[in-house]
Design goal:
The structure is a single chain. This protein is mostly helical. The protein has one domain (about 10-465): Orthogonal Bundle (Hydantoin permease), CATH 1.10.4160. The chain has 19 helices and no strands. The chain has helices spanning about 10-20, 25-35, 40-70, 75-80, 85-120, 130-140, 140-160, 165-190, 195-205, 205-210, 220-230, 240-245, 255-280, 290-300, 305-345, 350-370, 390-420, 420-430, 440-465. Helix 1 (about 10-20) packs across helix 15, helix 5 packs antiparallel against helix 15 and helix 13 packs across helix 14 (about 290-300). The radius of gyration is 21 Å and the shape is globular. The structure holds tryptophan. Tryptophan binds near residues 326 and 330. Tryptophan binds near residues 24, 26, 231 and 239.
């Protein structure tokens, strides 16, 4: 590369890093439950439709913008037109907000991993409490929660400050293969448990709705699938613009755009198969969010006896790998902005300093999430989000995942499809003799299908907030 921003050493390194960004807590605690509670198999079909007609498309658009401009989101978008810079700002803001709660959850996972780990050696990891009691005690222990959150930030800082090739690429090169190995090991173990097939019934058949107490509603399923897909594939907020800006010109973007969402979807389905069979075999009931990942899984492992300590420690290690590999890309989006914008102003800032500043800002946002105790502190300033939203985490999530990311995705498609034109995009993809795989498909989607689908979902989401 002509400047000293850094770059990925190979396409495999890039693909693993992008998979690392995509595969995260969203896959583990969001997808499996949402699939079960929204109709099972029909939900999977709706989700796949969004992956193909929106996910793959936005992925390709983002990578093309990133590599063409060689910049992080704000400068990249303003290079397409000064007035589009705000789309990049949405990305930087979303990344900062998401990290504000993501880091806290990774911190929880460290606590749980250590708990099961020391139980292997006979110590008591959770003070003899069951899942619910321990979760209440732990989230109420603000000192510990903040401490583990800081641990997460320190680790992410060292990886991101290490640079693209020596930090991010290296971590994902080990973390992502390890993640799939652990997932498969847990799945194999689960199927030795009696009653585990009930977990598959929950996920894949309409029985899941009965168990979750929900009803199938097509529009709801579409909204849920669309939001989940964007979040899960790390789209609509410039993460893939940023990673794309470090990709060598000789690599084929349109091919990568199919591989990464496909791997993310596989990971989401595998996560469900690693979680629900165990939950049902141990007589626990499925639910969503932090409750599933911590309370339910804690009880599930505890009731497995001694083996549960090993499976539990492995499971939380998996959550940590998935979480950190996503968190570093969140940190990279905002840090890259600081690095690029300071260089553009003629006062280049070192990577270490930029990452340090961003990690500090993100931590300031994370501390209130720790103190809020997932709503336990009773602040209630987020009531306007409606029923079921009771904590700061939901507020951060709503602003990023619910508003800025879908808007960002639509705007990026419109700017490229109509503003710049498909020849502009094709030009970038076909550099150095690469084939623009399925160009016709991308053209129709970028210009019409993807923005229409995303707008439809955004509008219906907005209407649902005013009670329609
Ligand atoms: N994809 C991540 C997950 O599934 C979360 C996420 C959303 C993200 N947007 C991102 C991660 C941007 C990195 C960058 O958990």
């Amino acid at each position: 590369m002509e400047n000293n921003r850094g770059s990925f050493s190979s396409n495999l390194g890039f693909v693993l890093a992008a998979m690392g960004s995509a595969i995260g807590l969203g896959n583990l605690w969001g997808f499996p439950y949402k699939m079960g509670a929204n109709g099972g198999f029909p939900f999977l079909i709706i989700y796949l439709t969004f992956v193909i007609f929106c996910g793959v498309v936005v992925m390709c658009v983002e990578m093309a913008i990133g590599r063409k401009t060689g910049k992080s989101p704000v400068l990249a978008m303003s290079q397409l037109g000064k007035k589009y810079a705000f789309v990049g700002w949405f990305g930087v803001l979303s990344a900062t907000l998401i990290m504000g709660f993501y880091s806290v959850l990774i911190g929880y996972s460290f606590r749980y991993m250590f708990g099961f780990l020391i139980q292997i050696f006979g110590a008591s990891g959770f003070g003899g409490m069951d899942g619910g009691a321990f979760f209440g005690a732990y989230t109420g222990n603000i000192g510990a929660v903040v401490g583990y959150t800081i641990l997460t930030f320190v680790l992410c800082y060292f990886i991101v400050a290490g640079g693209i090739e020596k930090g991010i690429e290296k971590f994902n090169g080990i973390g992502i293969p390890a993640l799939f190995v652990i997932l498969i090991a847990i799945i194999i173990y689960n199927f030795t448990l009696e009653g585990s097939e009930q977990g598959l019934v929950f996920m894949f058949t309409s029985k899941g709705m009965e168990i979750a107490g929900t009803e199938f509603n097509f529009l709801n399923a579409c909204r849920t699938a669309a939001g989940q897909m964007l979040f899960s594939c790390s789209l609509g907020m410039g993460a893939m613009i940023t990673y794309g800006s470090y990709l060598d010109k000789k690599e084929n973007i349109s091919k990568n755009a199919w591989i990464i969402p496909a791997a993310d979807t596989c990971a989401a389905i595998l996560a469900g198969v690693a979680i629900f069979p165990a939950v049902f075999a141990q007589g626990q009931s499925p639910n969503a969010g932090p409750g599933l990942l911590f309370i339910t899984m804690h009880n599930t492992f505890t009731s497995m006896g001694f083996a549960g300590n090993i499976v539990g420690a492995l499971f939380y290690l998996l959550v940590i790998f998935a979480g950190i590999s996503s968190a570093i890309s969140l940190m990279e989006v905002s840090s890259a902005h600081l690095i690029d914008s300071s260089a553009a102003k003629g006062k280049p800032m070192s990577r270490k300093k930029a990452v340090g500043i961003i990690a500090g800002i993100m931590m300031v946002l994370a501390i209130p999430v720790c103190i809020d105790k997932l709503g336990g502190a009773g602040w209630g300033i987020y009531q306007f989000l409606g029923e079921g939203s009771k904590d700061l985490l939901d507020l951060y999530d709503f602003v990023s995942e619910g508003v800025m990311m879908p808007l960002g995705a639509v705007l990026m498609c419109l700017v490229v499809g109509w503003g710049k034109g498909m020849d502009w995009m094709a030009d970038e993809i076909e550099t150095q003799g690469n084939k623009f795989v399925t160009r016709g498909f991308f053209t129709v989607c970028v210009k019409y299908i993807t923005p229409a689908m995303m707008l439809f979902v955004l509008i219906s989401l907005a209407l649902s907030y005013v009670g329609l």
